[in-house]
């Protein structure tokens, strides 16, 4: 079995999108950092690529980007970072850099020291990770509950094909098969409360917590406390087991481990947690009924306000706890036979990913090829009620983009509530259109909301693109400057795709001793660029110096290629350039160049790029960027006095 420098685990409440987006982000970040990584995913179908004990033992650090419990006790003795899954999507480079280079990352230990491993989201709270524990345990419960809700809800919804009262033996619409579907579906949906309760507890205190959680959840369900009772019961059961573990700690594990697990914890846990839940069920039930009645009243009396609230909640964190709060309320009302509320929730969840697709259609020049592809894919994801596809677009400019999503989601929800649309299934998106009472109208409202958000997103992206001079073609991120590179207008998206994975893209492959020049005289940045263009033609690397110079200057207008430590990396892409080549020149005197550290430049590493290079220049740039992250390389480059020294250093 191969060894991995890093290992990771990802998981989200739905186990659909976040899980695998975080996996991809971490893998790409590790690849960029030049280290190996294996990511264990906790998706809806279970655990994929599980980590073996040998892989855990061989890793130097662990990243857990998950909203569900991933059994971190396997990682005792390892440097470990725990963050929500969304952070794994937004900040993979930062997480990889921390686990590799930050000496303050704590080592994970079980028991009393376990709480020292904290989420990044809780920094500054006196080291307390209680919020992270609460959040992860809630998402763990939601993750395990959702399949029951979806399976049961869809079966109940299908039973309505034979009539709204087709499951009632006393009705003229009665149909035995519909009755069977309704009974199976209802029984499955009734498991929502005990399953939610059990797996909240399981995340807190493992198997013993789950057992007590199931029992407590059944009491909550029987007494009508709804999902509020499930949530309270889950934490009650989980921390009851924690309390019992503390009380029974004096009993040695070697003699009493089995007795504790099989007898003491479940019996005492169910007794304590069950009795507390029994006595708080009445006020919990009143609170649950009151909240549901309030929401039902808003459906009729204040559909605009209700739609606004649901739209803001659904588009605030795209599948996170706020979004899930709206969704859980919808499923609870759905179980009571209210099909109106879920219609608005579903509309508000479907609109954001569709909006990203419309945004890239409205303003394709403002987005990179990868972003455009993601937008097109989001038409499919959104149509199946997967909101998470909007996350990368929201994370790109959250202060402006998230409110844009909220506006579109609110419009979709408001229009849905105002026209009294009913959606009897808790998930599925447009797949369940045959079950919707006004399917075409519902789709129209969702599309209108998505179009509004899409137009706002496109306008914001266009403004940002203009501000940062985003290219209208390939638009790939230049890893050296953080700007987007520009390709020739005729270059296609396919042509900009990465080349074969087995190519090394070593910068030394495109540098020869003839393309190195020392003691070059120049008094300004533009003189340096003119020298490079002439030098390229002189060495038969390009045919037209003026065109190459124009591309150099155009690239600088988009964003300075000055780096730091006296180095600049200008590059030009033009049809008159024969093949990818590197030029290196050292100046007799430094010149002013906009750099990160505001210091003048005396060393230039330049790239000449043909019009159709299949994206290879990005690989060469990336690998050169890695070299520039090493202080010893920078020092040796500045100290090099001959062409041979520079060539050998870069090779």
TrEMBL record:
<dbReference type="InterPro" id="IPR016152">
    <property type="entry name" value="PTrfase/Anion_transptr"/>
</dbReference>
<keyword id="KW-0812">Transmembrane</keyword>
<feature type="transmembrane region" description="Helical">
    <location>
        <begin position="145"/>
        <end position="164"/>
    </location>
</feature>
<dbReference type="GO" id="GO:0005351">
    <property type="term" value="F:carbohydrate:proton symporter activity"/>
</dbReference>
<dbReference type="InterPro" id="IPR003501">
    <property type="entry name" value="PTS_EIIB_2/3"/>
</dbReference>
<feature type="region of interest" description="Disordered">
    <location>
        <begin position="483"/>
        <end position="504"/>
    </location>
</feature>
<dbReference type="GO" id="GO:0005886">
    <property type="term" value="C:plasma membrane"/>
</dbReference>
<keyword id="KW-0597">Phosphoprotein</keyword>
<feature type="transmembrane region" description="Helical">
    <location>
        <begin position="176"/>
        <end position="199"/>
    </location>
</feature>
<feature type="transmembrane region" description="Helical">
    <location>
        <begin position="339"/>
        <end position="362"/>
    </location>
</feature>
<dbReference type="GO" id="GO:0009401">
    <property type="term" value="P:phosphoenolpyruvate-dependent sugar phosphotransferase system"/>
</dbReference>
<feature type="transmembrane region" description="Helical">
    <location>
        <begin position="439"/>
        <end position="460"/>
    </location>
</feature>
<feature type="domain" description="PTS EIIC type-2">
    <location>
        <begin position="134"/>
        <end position="470"/>
    </location>
</feature>
<dbReference type="GO" id="GO:0090563">
    <property type="term" value="F:protein-phosphocysteine-sugar phosphotransferase activity"/>
</dbReference>
<dbReference type="Pfam" id="PF02302">
    <property type="entry name" value="PTS_IIB"/>
</dbReference>
<keyword id="KW-1003">Cell membrane</keyword>
<feature type="domain" description="PTS EIIB type-2">
    <location>
        <begin position="6"/>
        <end position="101"/>
    </location>
</feature>
<feature type="transmembrane region" description="Helical">
    <location>
        <begin position="399"/>
        <end position="419"/>
    </location>
</feature>
<feature type="transmembrane region" description="Helical">
    <location>
        <begin position="262"/>
        <end position="280"/>
    </location>
</feature>
<feature type="transmembrane region" description="Helical">
    <location>
        <begin position="211"/>
        <end position="242"/>
    </location>
</feature>
<dbReference type="InterPro" id="IPR050864">
    <property type="entry name" value="Bacterial_PTS_Sugar_Transport"/>
</dbReference>
<dbReference type="Pfam" id="PF00359">
    <property type="entry name" value="PTS_EIIA_2"/>
</dbReference>
<dbReference type="InterPro" id="IPR013011">
    <property type="entry name" value="PTS_EIIB_2"/>
</dbReference>
<dbReference type="InterPro" id="IPR004715">
    <property type="entry name" value="PTS_IIA_fruc"/>
</dbReference>
<dbReference type="InterPro" id="IPR036095">
    <property type="entry name" value="PTS_EIIB-like_sf"/>
</dbReference>
<keyword id="KW-0762">Sugar transport</keyword>
<dbReference type="InterPro" id="IPR013014">
    <property type="entry name" value="PTS_EIIC_2"/>
</dbReference>
<dbReference type="InterPro" id="IPR002178">
    <property type="entry name" value="PTS_EIIA_type-2_dom"/>
</dbReference>
<keyword id="KW-0808">Transferase</keyword>
<dbReference type="InterPro" id="IPR003353">
    <property type="entry name" value="PTS_IIB_fruc"/>
</dbReference>
<dbReference type="GO" id="GO:0022877">
    <property type="term" value="F:protein-N(PI)-phosphohistidine-fructose phosphotransferase system transporter activity"/>
</dbReference>
<keyword id="KW-0598">Phosphotransferase system</keyword>
<feature type="domain" description="PTS EIIA type-2">
    <location>
        <begin position="509"/>
        <end position="651"/>
    </location>
</feature>
<dbReference type="InterPro" id="IPR006327">
    <property type="entry name" value="PTS_IIC_fruc"/>
</dbReference>
<feature type="transmembrane region" description="Helical">
    <location>
        <begin position="301"/>
        <end position="319"/>
    </location>
</feature>
<keyword id="KW-0813">Transport</keyword>
<keyword id="KW-0472">Membrane</keyword>
<protein>
    <submittedName>
        <fullName>PTS system, fructose-specific, IIB component/PTS system, fructose subfamily, IIA component/PTS system, fructose subfamily, IIC component</fullName>
    </submittedName>
</protein>
<keyword id="KW-1133">Transmembrane helix</keyword>
